[in-house]
């Protein structure tokens, strides 16, 4: 990988630098913002699949594992390593699992039915069809 001169730290096998930290922080904030509805959460999961897959592929090409890097003129601002690539593959798989998981059904609260009370202007035939008031 190309040394960008940034402070780099390794945690859990993942190489982190300020650029990567911003990418992960932005992705996390976007995930929190989009988690409020099922549709946006599912869209975020598809973005995780796409982003993780692209970073995985880019990392493998940067390290020469699958092909020459077609974007070599951009350098390697994220300083991706082979281990980073495998973490990005895990992120992509998690995105796929979340995007393809079945949606949960809506929760319906049980509300007791209240019998209608007869009004004085209601016809007598309609009043006799009403159930007797409950003594609850």
Quick structural summary:
With 136 residues, this protein is mainly alpha-helical.
Structure, explained:
This protein has 136 residues and is mainly alpha-helical. Helix content is 49%, strand content 4%. It has four helices and two strands, in the order E-E-H-H-H-H. The protein has helices at residues 18-33, 38-62, 82-100, 124-129; strands at residues 9-11, 14-16. A two-stranded antiparallel ribbon has the order 1-2. Helix 2 (38-62) packs antiparallel against helix 3 (82-100). The longest helix has 25 residues, at 38-62.
What's the total count of β strands? 2
Q: What is the arithmetic mean of pLDDT?
A: 78
Describe the strand arrangement of the main beta sheet, using strand numbers. Answer: 1-2
Percent of residues in helices comes to 40-55%
Overall geometry comes to rod-shaped
Main beta-sheet strand count, sense and barrel state: 2 strands, antiparallel
Number of H- or I-type helical stretches: 4
How far apart are the first and last residues' alpha carbons, in Å? Answer: 75 Å
Helix/strand class: mainly alpha
Strand content: under 5%
- Taken in chain order, the helices and strands follow as EEHHHH
Based on CA atoms alone, the radius of gyration comes out at: 28 Å
Which blocks of ≥5 consecutive residues have pLDDT under 50?
none
């Amino acid at each position: 990988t190309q040394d960008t001169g940034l402070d780099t730290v390794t945690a859990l096998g993942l190489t982190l630098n300020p650029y990567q930290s911003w990418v992960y922080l932005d992705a996390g904030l976007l995930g929190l913002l989009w988690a409020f509805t099922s549709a946006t959460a599912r869209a975020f999961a598809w973005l995780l699949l796409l982003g993780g897959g692209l970073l995985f592929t880019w990392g493998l090409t940067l390290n020469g594992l699958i092909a020459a890097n077609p974007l070599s003129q951009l350098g390697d601002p994220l300083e991706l390593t082979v281990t980073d690539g495998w973490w990005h593959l895990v992120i992509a798989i998690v995105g796929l699992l979340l995007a393809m998981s079945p949606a949960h059904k809506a929760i319906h609260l049980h509300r007791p039915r209240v019998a209608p009370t007869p009004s004085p202007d209601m016809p007598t035939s309609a009043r006799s069809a009403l159930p007797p008031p409950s003594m609850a």
